[in-house]
Amino acid sequence: MTPANPTRRDEAANLPLELAIILPTLNERDNLAPLVERIESALTGVGWEVLVVDDNSSDGTAEEARRLAKNDNRVRVIQRIGRRGLSSAAIEGFCATAAPYCAVMDADHQHDPNLLIPMLLSVKTGEAEVAVASRFAEGASTQEWDRPDRERLSGAANALARKLTGVELSDPMSGYFLLPTRTAMRLVPGLSGIGFKILLDLLATSDTPLKVKDFPMQFGARRSGESKLDRAIALDFLAGLYDKSFGRVIPTRFALFGTVGALGVLVHMAILYALLVFVGASFTWGQTAATFGAMTFNFWLNNFLTYRDRRLKTAGKVFWGWASFIAACSIGAFANVAVATMLHERGLYEMLAALVGIAIGSVWNYALSSRFVWGR
Ligand code: GDD
Ligand code: MN
């Protein structure tokens, strides 16, 4: 009998498809081939496929994945263009596989594929509904930055995670877990898909607390390339909490953007006051300096907070980001004044017209910034 597909590499490929390993990637070209090899040797006796979900990496990760897929069609590629995010990449993977079980795993070798089989077994036998590889369970170990991370994670954040999910978890931010695809698909409609807290999101979305089993892991060092996530874990928790409660009314990112804007008003007033009172500047100069000061502050805080998942980091990018942010704000200000004036002329009370102007200006600022300052 000839194999169903001649590009399948070995007889193991004739096993029925059981496990999809979803690898979200952003610039992981050199990590892919060795990782697929490690997965292959870890999964003897199991029918598997690897789903590389790449967000149009600039280093040619998708091309490398296609090259691997040509030699071994257990490797599949989803290249997304114009979309970003670890969570949404994982969701893309859930939706794209026929395998009854799914694992999500980092592509940079920090997660050990040898845990896949024990994790799969625990879920298959019903011992757990979700298997989570934990950096902080008894017997786990981590390298690099993870120690201070652990300090921060214990305490308030962990309590919050417990409240959110109803589940006791030693590592709610783990990026390495396995569950039945059916379970994932049931939860997908309720997920926010923002940021990188996909596991937390899955657990918090389930009506009944899911049965979780922790697997202590040896969290290795990244093999090549650099980390794309920052360590503002508390922030991600708070954003997650907000998202679950009000995210459908006012999107999290817009709420952050608006809060930053409101803080900018305070900064503006402080600068203006200081220049007028202490420096003796004219109002025009004071107002101009305060406007630029506030915009710079807003740019910085938005880059730090609102768009932390797309943060501009190099000096050149920060400079151009700052310049285009100021341009975006000017357009927003124009929309603000135009709309407010028009409403006022039609007889709307001044304060109300001003508020509507501010609201419309903010939406413009937000839309332009998302697209042109922190877009790709
Ligand atoms: N498709 C896609 N899109 N993949 C992404 C994106 C994105 O926007 N951002 C990151 N990735 C991929 C990376 O290429 C890597 O394979 C994986 O997601 C994890 O990214 P890293 O940049 O290596 O994350 P980390 O090592 O800093 O963070 C780890 O610890 C976090 C908890 O502190 C990961 O395990 C996270 O999942 C975990 O939440
Ligand atoms: Mn990593």
Automatic annotation (TrEMBL):
**UniProt-listed InterPro entries:** DPM1-like, Glyco_trans_2-like, GtrA_DPMS_TM, Nucleotide-diphossugar_trans
Q: Where is the Glycosyltransferase 2-like domain?
A: 21-176
Record-linked Gene3D superfamilies: Spore Coat Polysaccharide Biosynthesis Protein SpsA, Chain A
Q: Where in the cell is it found?
A: Membrane
Keyword Membrane in record: yes
Principal subcellular localisation of the protein: membrane
> Key word Transferase present in the record?
yes
Domain GtrA/DPMS transmembrane residue range list: 257-374
Signal peptide annotation:
none
Record's superkingdom? Bacteria
Question: What is this protein identified as?
Answer: Glycosyltransferase family 2 protein
